[in-house]
Amino acid sequence: xxxxxxxxxxxxxxxxxxxxxxxxxxxxxxxxxxxxxxxxxxxxxxxxxxxxxxxxxxxxxxxxxxxxxxxxxxxxxxxxxxxxxxxxxxxxxxxxxxxxxxxxxxxxxxxxxxxxxxxxxxxxxxxxxxxxxxxxxxxxxxxxxxxxxxxxxxxxxxxxxxxxxxxxxxxxxxxxxxxxxxxxxxxxxxxxxxxxxxxxxxxxxxxxxxxxxxxxxxxxxxxxxxxxxxxxxxxxxxxxxxxxxxxxxxxxxxxxxxxxxxxxxxxxxxxxxxxxxxxxxxxxxxxxxxxxxxxxxxxxxxxxxxxxxxxxxxxxxxxxxxxxxxxxxxxxxxxxxxxxxxxxxxxxxxxxxxxxxxxxxxxxxxxxxxxxxxxxxxxxxxxxxxxxxxxxxxxxxxxxxxxxxxxxxxxxxxxxxxxxxxxxxxxxxxxxxxxxxxxxxxxxxxxxxxxxxxxxxxxxxxxxxxxxxxxxxxxxxxxxxxxx
Amino acid sequence: xxxxxxxxxxxxxxxxxxxxxxxxxxxxxxxxxxxxxxxxxxxxxxxxxxxxxxxxxxxxxxxxxxxxxxxxxxxxxxxxxxxxxxxxxxxxxxxxxxxxxxxxxxxxxxxxxxxxxxxxxxxxxxxxxxxxxxxxxxxxxxxxxxxxxxxxxxxxxxxxxxxxxxxxxxxxxxxxxxxxxxxxxxxxxxxxxxxxxxxxxxxxxxxxxxxxxxxxxxxxxxxxxxxxxxxxxxxxxxxxxxxxxxxxxxxxxxxxxxxxxxxxxxxxxxxxxxxxxxxxxxxxxxxxxxxxxxxxxxxxxxxxxxxxxxxxxxxxxxxxxxxxxxxxxxxxxxxxxxxx
Lengths: 484, 340
Hints:
Chain A is an alpha/beta fold.
């Protein structure tokens, strides 16, 4: 085999007291799609950052002559600029001292077409759906014609159809000689699209596979260092109607249209659908942060659009929002303060006008223990935690509030298999204990694993209802795609 | 952990001091002044005699009130740059109240201070109301309210609130019963410094121990997360701006009752603006703001004597003041870089 395009040798990196990387070797060869997997905090993103040159290792060498591109998990785009301005930022074609807008637009259009990425060069980035923003992010890196392309959880926010087309682009790139590294949690994608797999745990490489000679099960065992714990048992419950929505409409384009459904205490209702088909509006309407028409009743008590989020929280409605970084957490705060957020208006955390620090600490310790949050010091700043541990805090704080209704929007988005299994088990336990759970997910496997009933959304409407016993995967997929 | 943090602060402050003294010395050498003489004059002017030290504390107090007010709004994510106007109107209200309501000492003092806080709170509250009701940008609102406050005060003391016994641009001298008692005889240092320090402690407690402070910081730290967690962002905006203005207004009132003993339109040489720097240098932490206000107080008084005693040109003094801000703000910047 020819020389690797990029080689990492004996990389060590320490952040404070945490040894993030402990002697890692990695080769990236021309033409391969190399999957890098591991639990949250295993060191994958740090390794990618070192390969890109954004972090300097404490020890070890980085050898590469190629241009290295990195697509971040959290997009690094200027929201107010349009697509071509973002793609060419810092490299704009000039005519004299002015930007040659015509040439710029054409260059981006040609680049997009050449890679089979459908993007309007003049669209303002903040108006684009997440899947399209991803393409812009990818285009910006491709514009530099990288020999090595690093992708940090590129499909975490994408819908299934977008994922397929994303991998068509990536596969074509690899075929043309680019070395691709994909950091991901989605093991099925690893099996479907990668050529080699490197598994990391606690800052070390613990396994390397050729993809054709391994399985998701084997990879998962290597990641967690043993068998995954089975999902919690489903206990028999006696469901009674808790949430009833009639003719609920909310949001403008891409919103929810005329939704009528109910969620009963002691059941998980899964909402299946491709992202952008009204799920955000559904969750936001229930959270009381957007206005809506139609009626919502909780245990027979109407919740009009005028009922504030605070009143909803007090009556037992908890929503795990879409974006944990802006909608759920105060990143600069400690774990303890974040656990208190949203539970600070009621006892035991609120005591008159005082915030009971002992109660805050107790609540935080409870979440840390029940969800295995690492690091386990409640004073740790949430910004320093991995995405999976942040998500555990968001889910844990919602469940710790003893909700009547839990709306979970993609509760396992972007977190590793171990953490996801834990979150799923906790949702089942909440259901067993009589919580009404509305699970909005874009991963059908998750819905089929958890839901007692499945509602299918398409174009903002509920287009099908299935019971757990009789659910037909093919029918659900067809309805999601807008079929009949 | 706590020890570690303190050590880092100590070390960073040490670096900041080296930067200030090093670059300040270079600036003085370029102006053909001996740095030794210059810095000696700075500290001599700030600490040389009891009365000079008292004046340093008077300046620090004058900055501490509006800086605490600014910090309260900043913590809620609101850029209140209207402390100057709130302070001036607080001073006006105190000056007028003190003349119109002479009474027994305690009553008179409390009434004038309350009037100042009320006026400042009202002025800040206008910006808060515009923000919460119409989403009006508080920077623009407070900036314009500053201008209105200045002109309003000038108009008031020369127009409807003009007293025959007063000069132009002033209210009459307050009765002695309305003066804040001095804590060092024959100086202008009054119990206002105690009030300011107590206020810093109250704010520390409010930020860190109360539900209100928690919601305020949530609104400032991540408004969307706060809203979804049941924080009423509109109420917080109104309250934060009102309290912020009230604290600045109280500061204006203490200048009237403690320092000038009358309202004068030239009451503040820009305390409300310097206060923004003080609040930021103090990391928006009340206790550190008190430290920062003291440092700025040293600079304000020492700078005068640098000019007078060591013939350091005013421009070089400005350079040194700027260096202090950069060095202290740089510490914040470096700290931010470390955590992200």
